[in-house]
């Protein structure tokens, strides 16, 4: 008992507590999923009220929805980049072939190849480095367009069903 009393009391910040608990939960071997009642029980053990847990759960659900939207947007951008790469390869391959067949005295096809390649590489940089204001603006523009399409499709569906 004297050994317990001789150790100083340790204090942790809220961030440190969250990190320690995250590590402990990740290390815990648990088969299956937690039920809502188990979540409430864990929250009660941590001193979290059901109202606070509800707010946290709603915030988490909103974050998950936002994450899914961003993943869909990133997949859309990557698909567009793959399509553009295909077009680039086909068109520039044909142009270089035409340039070779007509005599390579003036390499005009290389100017097209380099110019389009520069544009494509800048686009690839934007697709695979999603940060900053430009990404956020592109995401907002895509999301508004996506919402508008959904609205129109819903409206047309209701009109046709009526």
From TrEMBL:
This is 2TM domain-containing protein. Keywords: Membrane, Transmembrane, Transmembrane helix. InterPro entries: 2TM_dom. The chain crosses the membrane at residues 90-114. Residues 69-147 form the 2TM domain.
């Amino acid at each position: 008992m004297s050994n317990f009393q001789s150790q100083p009391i340790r204090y942790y910040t809220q961030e440190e507590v969250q990190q320690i608990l995250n590590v402990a939960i990740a290390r815990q071997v648990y088969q299956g999923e937690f039920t809502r009642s188990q979540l409430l029980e864990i929250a009660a053990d941590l001193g979290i009220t059901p109202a606070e847990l509800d707010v946290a759960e709603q915030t988490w659900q909103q974050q998950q929805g936002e994450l899914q939207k961003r993943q869909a947007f990133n997949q859309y951008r990557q698909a567009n980049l793959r399509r553009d790469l295909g077009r680039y390869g086909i068109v520039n391959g044909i142009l270089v072939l035409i340039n070779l067949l007509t005599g390579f005295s003036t390499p005009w096809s290389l100017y097209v190849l380099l110019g389009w390649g520069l544009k494509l590489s800048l686009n690839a940089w934007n697709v695979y480095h999603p940060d900053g204001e430009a990404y956020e603006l592109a995401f907002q523009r895509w999301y508004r367009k996506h919402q508008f399409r959904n609205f129109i499709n819903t409206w047309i569906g209701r009109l046709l069903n009526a």
